[in-house]
Predict the structure.
Amino acid sequence: SDGVLPRGDVHGFRLSLWGEHTAAYSPLYLEPDSPQCVQYINRIADINWSIFAEDVPHNMTSHLMKYPYLVGPDGSVNAIQRYFPDCDSVKALVEGAPQASVPNILTT
C-alpha cells in the first residue's frame, strides 16, 4: 500500500466521534495511527479523568476518559482507585465483583 490512509465513512465517523468526545478538533485526528495522535487523545482522557475524579463537581464539555485501570507490562490489570468517584452513596467498585445472576461470559 502507498501509506495513504482511507478517508471514507469510517474516517468521517471517527472524526465526528473524537470531535464530540473531546469537544475539539485537531489535525492530529487525520493520522490516528501516529504516536502524536495517540498521545494527544490519551492526554485529553487523562485530564478529563482527573477533573471527573475531583471532590468538587465540574461542568465538563469534553467527556473522553480512560477507564481507571493500569495495565502492567505483563498484562496484569489493576484499578487505580477502589471506587468510582461519582458513586459515593453506593460505593461502586471499579473492579466490580462476581455476581451469581450474571454469567462470567458476559463480564470477563
About this structure: The radius of gyration is 17 Å. The CA atoms of residues 70 and 78 lie 5 Å apart.
